[in-house]
Amino acid sequence: MNYGHRGRDLLLELKRARANDHKASSTSVVPPYNDRLVRECLQDLQLHIQALQDQVDAQGGEKPSMNVRPSLVLQNAAIGRNKRCLLAYHKIRADRLTAAYWNNTLLDASSKTNLSPVEEEFFSSYEQICRDYCNMLQLPNPDLRSYGNHPPQPLSKVQVQVLRSTEGPIVLESGSTLAFQKGAVHYLAYSDVEGLLRDGTLALLSTEEEDDLHQSNNIGRV
Q1: What's the pLDDT at 153?
Q2: Domain boundaries, given as residue ranges, for the chain
Q3: What does the UniProt entry say about where the protein is found (predicted)?
Q4: What is the rounded distance in angstroms from the CA atom of residue 152 to the CA atom of residue 174?
Q5: Pairing of strands 157-162, 202-204
Q6: What is the pTM for the complete model shown?
Q7: CA separation for the pair 110, 31 (Å, rounded)
Q8: Which of 108, 111, 197, 220 is the Cys-Cys partner for 140 at CB 3.0 to 4.6 Å?
Q9: Which of 17-21, 59-63, 115-119 has the highest mean pLDDT?
Q10: d(C-alpha 164, C-alpha 35), whole Å
């Protein structure tokens, strides 16, 4: 019976693949999913569980003797080790897939062949959840990545630029009034400008656009 060695091999495989990617400057998101080794780990896990159950049943409900206890502890430790290795293997791969989304790394045909069917479904579902979140908040840009790691919250401040002048002052959600002139930039609560962003009066500035705007303003002053 294998005492956690196959689980260790799974994690070592991930470690070696990452080291090889760095040496070869590879853009692979994850190495090929090792379905065979995962199945072998699951089989080992079931064997340890069955062996532990058989030893417990053999005691007839009595307290295990000192001769049996070491074997029980060993079987239980092997079960825990296999579980941890399997969970770590899949968690690391899932983390790399979500990182690929936030880094805007496209999964080409070659990368997708490295995924298990469940991982492909996970990545597609993750993308859909992010789109649904944007729709729920009624964000002007349906791509959550355009807001960095966190989308704007109702009370958070955002930088906006006026695309279309308004006819006189507008009463904002907070109760204050403000007149918007085309080309002007304002720093306001997201809840105050949400409707104006949707109708195209304002545009949300990304971090890069803010930097470009500040740079152009500084050049103008020189």
Answers
A1: 59
A2: 5-137, 150-210
A3: Nucleus
A4: 17
A5: antiparallel
A6: 0.61
A7: 11
A8: 197
A9: 115-119
A10: 56
Name, of 16-20, 146-150, 163-167, the range with top average pLDDT.
Answer: 163-167
Torsion of CA 36, 40, 41, 43, to 10 degrees: 140
d(CA 45, CA 219): 66
What is the pLDDT at residue 36? 94
161 bridge partner residues: 185, 203
For 114-132, give the DSSP string.
Answer: TS-HHHHHHHHHHHHHHHH
Q: Is the dihedral of CA 207, 208, 213, 218 positive or negative?
A: positive
Give the pairing type, strands 177-178 and 157-162.
Answer: unpaired
CATH architecture of the domain with residue range 5-137 = Up-down Bundle (1.20)
DSSP 86: H
Fold assignment, 150-210: Ribosomal Protein L9; domain 1 (3.40.5)
DSSP state of 173: T
